[in-house]
Amino acid sequence: MYPKGKICSLGLWDESVPDIRFDKDGVSNYAQIQKILMEKYPRGEKGLQDWNGIVDRVKKVGKSKRYDCVIGVSGGVDSSYLLHLLKKKYNLNPLAVTVDNGWSSDIAVKNIKKMTDALDIDLETYVIDYEEIKDLFRSYMFASLPWIDMPTDMAIKAMMYTIALKENIKYVFRGNDFRTEGKQPREWTYGDNKMLKHVHKRFGRIKKLKTYPYLPFSKIIYAGFVRKIKDIRPFYYLDYSKKMAKEFLIKEYDWQDYGGHHHENLFTKYSMSCWLPDKFDIDKRIINLSAQVMSGFLSRKDAIVEINESPIAEKEKSSLMVYIKKKLDISDDEYKKIIELENKSYKNYPNNENIIKFLLENFSFFIKLVYKQKPMTFIEMEVNK
Q1: pLDDT-based confidence at 373, cuts 50/70/90?
Q2: Could you give the CA distance from residue 373 to residue 171 in angstroms, rounded to a whole number?
């Protein structure tokens, strides 16, 4: 039940959030991260000016090419509306990319088709062999890690970079927006290629993953530094409202709502609404709602009311749990044992965090060459050091 201990004076961040600190005014270090991002990426006239500059460069670099940018799509509000903006408002020629991990809701699949068909945008769908993704999800669960949907996040990023490299496209766009999503703590969501390989080798049943798209850190460096590929979130700059975007999509494209945040994918829905709260007592909505309060989308009072409501109705949770266990080939007894395993974090497994810290401390100039927008993890490390 919210809150757990002291609460940030500017949001909902409480003492359930790892490594949280408060200054003399009760402002948390996570609110400081949000402030830094808002100052670094202002909206309004300055944000639009910065974004128009990016659009001009995208058009110039991609002038003689079939596609001038890659966009990852999920059937959700953010990526669907971004498709509309890129094609209709800014006259870009995006190549849409989606990863089929066998868990997308029917609504999400239909939304992707509606949007790409209506906008005449080519769609490239990469299908991961289901037995492989099932084995990865099971491995993360047996590893007793918080963010068990990390294999999906990494696969999507891997395919966007892979296709950008293959098609010689210099810009990758994503629909993320820190003003509505915030920065999740590393303790809850960190993952990388090194860690994924170790977790699968230790807990998996399949010896070799043949279709899962790996994205080694060296490939990100190569793509950004050598091939000059820029990974950009347009909503950092634009006056974007998820509520307005949803209403527009429903009216103009017959787009369908799928429910809660990231519920377009059923495994993501389970991870956020069941796994994290039940096993780790983690509610990621604290981060999302705090960001929305600081951004002025939601009052603090309304956010507190929302956080005290269950993330999922009991009847819906019950049917989702039955579906999850069956699809992952996990019995009731086996699931009970998994839930009772000692909780772990990314720190319990080999990972690349030390490499990232080393680059951040010694080669910050190099990071600027690789990334157009500094990753939020880097900003978190700087604030929390």
Answers
A1: confident
A2: 12
pLDDT at 261 over 70: no
| pTM as predicted | 0.93
CA separation for the pair 183, 57 (Å, rounded): 28
Tokens of 189: 């969501």
Both structure tokens of 379: 């900003």
Q: Which two tokens stand for residue 19?
A: 């490594």
φ, ψ of residue 274 in degrees (nearest 5): -125, -60
Token digits for 60? Answer: 């110039």
- CA–CA distance, 294 with 289 (Å, rounded to integer): 9
Query: Helix H segments across 240-372?
Result: 242-253, 266-270, 285-294, 300-307, 314-328, 332-340, 353-362, 364-370
Show the tokens assigned to 201.
């080798």
The CA-CA-CA angle for residues 153, 33, 183, to 5°, reads 20
Q: What are the structural domains, with CATH classification, of the chain?
A: 66-261+342-384 (3.40.50.620)
Residue 133: what residue type? I
pLDDT digits (tens, 9 = 90+) for 69-109: 999 999 999 999 999 999 999 999 999 999 999 998 899 99
The size of the chain, in residues, is: 385
Q: How is residue 270 written in tokens?
A: 């389970």
For residue 23, give both structure tokens. 């200054």
Give the number of other CB atoms < 10 A from CB of residue 246: 17
pLDDT tens by residue, 315-348: 999 999 999 999 999 999 999 999 999 999 999 9
Q: Residue 260 pLDDT > 60, yes or no?
A: no
**Tokens 């059937």 sit at which residue?**
75
| CA–CA dist 227, 70 (Å, integer) | 15
